[in-house]
Amino acid sequence: MPARADLAFDAFHYHHWRAQWDPLVSRTHVQDGAPCPSVGAISENTGAGALRALSMRTQFVSYDRPMLAAAKMVGRSFPFTQWAASMRHQADGADRSQLIYTYTFEVGPAPLRWVPVH
Q1: What is the per-residue pLDDT across 60-107, written as a single tens digit (0 to 9) for each?
Q2: CA-to-CA dists, residue 16 to 10, 37, 62, 79, 82, angstroms
Q3: pTM of the model
């Protein structure tokens, strides 16, 4: 990314900024009204465009600015029965950084599980 790791981290995790640039979300907020999450915080995220009908609540299990944030889904959010992700930010030069996004998920009901896993 053409930005330092701390700036990229804030752009992703300060929810009032994210909805301004992320085309996948129309609304994001932390339940307690904080501008960004913390460990244990629950955020609510609503999709944008064709994804507008999708929404998910996530709970942060790690929040170590400016390096790592990780969250898991709370409850269910069709089509997911489980979802978790981490975003690791690393410096890559003076004004550049890398974002390593790792996720895992399971979908349900069973007929939707058409993707073979080996």
Answers
A1: 999 999 999 999 999 989 889 999 999 999 999 999 999 999 999 998
A2: 10, 11, 20, 26, 26
A3: 0.85
CATH superfamily of domain region 5-104: START domain (3.30.530.20)
* 3-state SS class at 25: strand
Peptide bond between residue 37 and the one before it cis (omega within 30 degrees of 0) = no
Cis peptide bond N-terminal to 66, omega within 30: yes
CA–CA separation, 99 and 88 (whole Å)? 6
CA 47 to each of CA 70, 79, 105: distance values in angstroms, whole numbers, following the listed order: 19, 13, 17
Q: Where are the domains of the chain?
A: 5-104
pLDDT digits 0-9 by tens, 16-68: 888 888 899 999 999 999 999 999 999 999 999 998 999 999 999 999 999 99
Distance, in Å, from the CA atom of 91 to the CA atom of 40, rounded to the nearest integer, reads 26
C-alpha to C-alpha distance for 28 and 9, rounded to whole angstroms: 15
